[in-house]
Amino acid sequence: MSDIAIRAEGISKRYRIGQRERYYTLRDAIARTFTAPYQRFRNGRGPIAGNTLTPAVSHSGHAIQNAPFIWALRDVSFEIKTGEVVGIIGRNGAGKSTLLKILSRITEPTEGQVTIYGRVGSLLEVGTGFHPELTGRENIYLNGAILGMKRAEIARQFDEIVDFAEIEKFLDTPVKHYSNGMYMRLAFSVAAHLEPEILLIDEVLAVGDAAFQKKCLGKMGNVSKEGKTVLFVSHNMGAIKALCRWALLLDNGRVATIGSPAEVIKHYIAVDPCETEVILTDDKFHRGDSDFRIERVAILDALGAPCTRINFGHPFQIVLEAHLQRDVSGLHVGLGIATPDGTRLTTTHHSDSVQQTHFRKGRLFLRCYFDNNFYSPGHYFVHVGAHSEDSLASDYVPGALAFEVLPLSSNGDGDFKARNFGLFQHPSRWILENQPKDKEV
Amino acid sequence: MSMIRDGAIVQPGPIIIRANPGWVPLNLHDIWEYRELLYFLIWRDVKVRYKQTALGVAWAVLQPLMLMVVFSIFFGRLAKVPSDGLPYPVFAFCGLLPWQLFAHALAQSSESLVANERLITKVYFPRLLIPFSAILSGMIDFLIAFVILFVMIFYYGLSPTGALWTIPFFVLLAGVSALAVGLWLSALNVQYRDVRYTIPFITQFWLLASPVAYSISLVPEPWRWLYALNPMAGVIEGFRWALLGNRQGPGAEMAISIAAVLLLFVGGLYYFRRMEKTFADVV
Fold first, then answer.
1. Are residues A313 and A393 in the same domain?
2. ipTM
């Protein structure tokens, strides 16, 4: 079978800046109708676009740019054949989620056209439409229907879904009483039993503990063996390499590379400019609505100067700036460091060293010192997030930041020895125990 | 659109996704295709509604009953509003039932899109399902209150007329009226968040402009046609006619009500479809 499953021809998506951050009021619209002619006269410029042109407004309410539009996607074209598994990679904000939203018909492209041959199932989120008041049994039917399953289909697979989620005992308990783990298992289980011909999966499926992630990836491997077409977004380069026929790298809304996973990942790591600071005020970085949002992440050297590359063995700091909509208690803010393969090297929470877990509404600054840097030279991703006492995620931004450890130190004495491979250079000390001390030759 | 029948996939034509600026066809068959989801959304609303309230079913009865008591005291007893020769409490309750059905449906459907934001930004389905499902969730309340109305009719020694069979038609008209307005308001509410604040005002205004507490016979004959532009006038008068037989059956005014509703409804459908594509970006 080599017929086409998805054909994208020059798709572009334009957003108005601030569209996702500010709601218009009818009052504004009416006021604008009256003031627009006056403003046009005052500006002495051509006709303005009526009530579609509004000043770009940032989160704090200040104008940030004059250009009212941004292109989230620009002229993206590709073809996916039936039965192929394709990975989409790119930095946060590169347009990956927008692309999935267009392919799953949630939003329309501004330009271009997509043709899809087959029944599409999209999983942009696990547990969409779950209602806390309804029982597990009721939510299976509701969520299944929302994901596009027919009632007969759900009934047929009901036992399997329950088995997979391991929740038989709690089937008639409202899901608001479920633990986070049970909730995620049930949500994923329903999603995993969706039987579309084309499956679109967003990164969110990779949230959860290691066992859960493994289950997700295993299921995805099975799906691809069944000859289904799968398109998935991930920061987990290991999964992309293992599962995908080919991959697509998005950069700033454009297709940067299409090719074999290994090639594309190499390209991704090479072109990915390790930014010293990432601003995450836009909604698209955050999943769900939460009172807590990490809005800025920066990486600094030991002296507090912004840096993109860290010398081997040199300490560094990561700074988090967050915004709280209201007073929050029992919040653990954390960060994790992972390799591009998706291997988590470390996870650390502010509450490991600071007692306070209740924060006042407003801005929150946290600084994490990595006094000892044992990482081997290479690229690393920083995931940031926060969760409450019951381990429900309040915010999670995977791959918020990337940094590189260089094989050199500044003064040359602590250079990395190329013969020492491995992810870590654990501090170690050797002593010679049996040979007589060598005399100089 | 693809379909699954008994597990077998009927091979459909390709799905084309592209920008459709401006007015778009209604594609009402999409709703038919997604009828099971429509059913589940209604089922969810009804379940949650009765699970979350401590009073549960009693709530459905208490609201119109208490309004009836207040109306009977102030309008019936004190202001002596004429009730076409009927006992005022039955007269008022009979008007309150379709009114409550309408007001609840209107409020629910207007808020529905914003309330279902998560669904809209994460899954595709015809967006029309959301306001459609919202208007139907109040139906159970209505049916319960309807039983109470029957008890009252017999208590006051009245009996329903032979036109009782026309009731479903008036219920349908009330539902379509609520949906017609709900389509406009829900789509506007996504775009302009202050629209929600106007809804209580619209409902209050509309209640006073409808013959709930008074009879349409108070409206001078020459102005009846204008009054009939309010579809709830037709619904409520029709309701009383079918149950209590207080006046003669629906005439030209009913036709005006129906025409007004249809115009608003079809306009609402097209407006909704036009705005639909921006929902996920804006909501």
1. yes
2. 0.83
